[in-house]
């Protein structure tokens, strides 16, 4: 049994292999670029959203705690001073009134 292959068939095979190789390289580059861009965009969006949410929550909590503590301390000091002054004045007036009352009796 003899196998005959013409040079035309070999040439066509080489051209066909060359096209397949070119298509394979093109597909590989396309897939690589697509995957790289997809991963880069995904990572960038993920990081940006994560950082933005983290910063927003941190700032909001910090400001809320700061304002709450400031207001609470301010109100507490104000009320304490007001009550202390009021009680002191009242006690002073009561002492004078009692003193005047005792003087009038004598």
UniProtKB/TrEMBL annotation:
Q: Where is the composition biased (Basic and acidic residues)?
A: 14-106
Q: Where is this region: Disordered?
A: 1-106
Q: Where is the sequence biased in composition, kind Polar residues?
A: 1-12
Q: What is this protein called?
A: Uncharacterized protein
């Amino acid at each position: 049994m003899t196998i005959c292959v013409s040079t035309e068939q070999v040439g066509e095979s080489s051209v066909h292999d060359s096209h397949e190789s070119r298509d394979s390289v093109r597909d590989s580059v396309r897939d690589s670029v697509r995957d790289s861009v997809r991963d880069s965009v995904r990572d960038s969006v993920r990081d940006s959203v994560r950082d933005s949410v983290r910063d927003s929550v941190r700032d909001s909590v910090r400001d809320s705690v700061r304002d709450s503590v400031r207001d609470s301390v301010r109100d507490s000091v104000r009320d304490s001073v007001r009550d202390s002054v009021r009680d002191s004045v009242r006690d002073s007036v009561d002492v004078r009134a009692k003193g005047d009352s005792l003087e009038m009796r004598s």
